[in-house]
Amino acid sequence: MATDTATAPHELRFDAGRICLDLLATTHPVERLDSVEVLRAWIIASGLVPPGTPLAHADPSWPAAFRELRGHVARLVRSRLTPGVRPYDLALARVNDLARAAPPAPCAVADAEGALSRRLNGPPACAALLGAVARDAVELLTDPVARAGLRECAGDDCPLVYLDTSRGRRRRWCSSETCGNRERVARHRRRAALARA
Per the count of CB atoms within 10 A, which of 58, 60, 140, 189 is most buried? Predict the structure, then answer.
């Protein structure tokens, strides 16, 4: 069976500055959360759970639940980027409802050498993981300082939203390595074309 490289876990993005914004990035350039395996990879790579947390109990309902939350968070975040637009009441109610679930509670566990690491007492429930992401969205959208740092990528055809924590708040792209590099290459080509003309 061939693997769809468009949804390979190594292509998941975690450079938006908040876990709820990283969830929004799973739509670009194509749908990423299209399987349980990719969702498991996203949950672990996002830091929602400590490395090594068993997620074998995740079932096909989980990606749909995360996509639903992603849609509600996107409506709320986009409304913050458009002055005068109120958040959708349904999205706000659903995010608040999901945020009520207790997030997975880690504990510290010592290894043979005495070093501490985070572990969960058991496999996390889907509701708890959704609750952690929803709480992150609530915290972001209710913190005026953090909310003021929300930006939409200036890259061509890039709808990603990120949290600008740069000095002077002058960050323009979701990622300097992707959209920023594409912009620099395009600018160089335009200058070279003008020089040749």
Answer: 140
Q: What is the CATH number for 94?
A: 1.10.3300
Question: CA-to-CA distance for 153 and 150, rounded, in angstroms?
Answer: 10
Domain for residue 50, yes or no?
yes
Query: Between the CA of residue 46 and those of 43, 82, 111, 163, 170, what are the distances in Å?
Result: 5, 27, 23, 16, 25
pLDDT confidence tier of residue 188, bands split at 50, 70 and 90: low
User: What digits encode the pLDDT tens for the residues 18-50?
Assistant: 999 999 999 988 999 999 999 999 999 999 999
Contact 141, 72 (CB under 8 A): no
133: containing domain: 5-148
In sequence order, what are the residues at sequence separation of 6 or more whose Cβ sits closer than 8 angstroms to the Cβ of residue 29?
6
Task: Give the span between the Cα atoms of 197 and 188, in whole angstroms.
Answer: 14
Task: Identify whether 181 is part of a domain.
Answer: no
Asked whether 167 and 159 are in contact (CB, 8 A), the reply is no
In a domain, 182, yes or no: no
